[in-house]
Amino acid sequence: MYEAAEDSFLLEEEIIAFCKDKVITKSLDMGTGSGIQANTLCKFSKEVYAVDINKESKEKIGKKIKFIHSDLFKKVKEKDFDLIVFNPPYLPDGEEKADPELTGGKQGVELTLKFLKQAKKHLKEDGTILFIASSHANLDLLEKKAGKEYYLERIRELPLFFEKLYVYKATLEKKVLDKVKE
Fold this sequence. Notes:
By secondary structure, this protein is α/β, with parallel strands linked by helices.
């Protein structure tokens, strides 16, 4: 199970900054791992869901958080989330020994793109997604493909000695909302 590190703390800070002046009714922490994001969401959201492929993650989250054992959204029936957060595995295959906790596909963004494709069906029209990406991944590919369905914005950058981490904010484009409603 992935334990909280620099990327986790960076996303946690952005969740706090984002939620501070908003009313969040329902939120979801995809790939909860250590539970840091789900537990942070509890301070701001009336209803919190945590999803992870690893059943052991349930032990890391608070009792009022609803845990769903699932590979991304496969078993998530709930919809209309105000906020979805995701700290995905984001390194390209080859940089790590195909560790599923660290690698996000050949380019490092494939898992994030799969997540974004599925997430739009679970997000409120005016909902927001916050997620992490790395400078080691193919960010051009991520932005090009995700930009067809979402308005993407890099809202934070954390330079480390070996990479830069980015927090992205994604909201649905109007043309995508029309397709989701059909």
